[in-house]
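Q: I'm writing up a methods section and want to include an example of the input and output format. Could you take the sequence below and give the corresponding predicted structure tokens, formatted cleanly so I can copy it straight into the document?
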Amino acid sequence: MMTMYKEPRNNNRTELNACLLRRAIEAYNSNDPNQLAEMQAMGFDVALLERISQTTSEVFTRICSFDIIEVRLDPRRVELLCEFAEREKDARKLINRLIELGASQSMLHELVGLDPREFRNRRKMLDLPAAAQGRPADLTDEQADRLYHALRHGPEDFPGPLERYRYLGEETGLPLAQIWTHLRMNEEEDES
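A: Here is the clean output for your methods example:
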């Protein structure tokens, strides 16, 4: 009596193998050069793709139960991607905070390239009313004094302009659109 070798079953490995093999069969059947090139880059040649695509479901299931994939993690890449995703999340939160503090669409377009549709969507998501149209009102003398006080007595260096505007908005309680317009007008006057 012949004894069959039985590999211990590992459902995660089996699922991963099956997924890859189904993808290989799909690429072979599609005859798409891009998909075939992708499979060849993973180690499949055309003869192997043809053979796999012609297996019975019983053979396919058995193949999937063995170690056929070597998965290797690139820890440095994962670390970099985690850092990137965190920075992206923080940037989204900062932009949302600026919108809550009254940043205008034109301000955010100039600072971060935020388009009008994205600006409207974020305002909606933050449950804010539609943004006011037109040029923001000029600051009163008292508001301008508050702004310049915050500029003089606040931190000297910020990681970037967004953080600076967040600080000014939170410190003065003034809408960022007004602050931005006021500072830009004064910068233009200083340049001329």
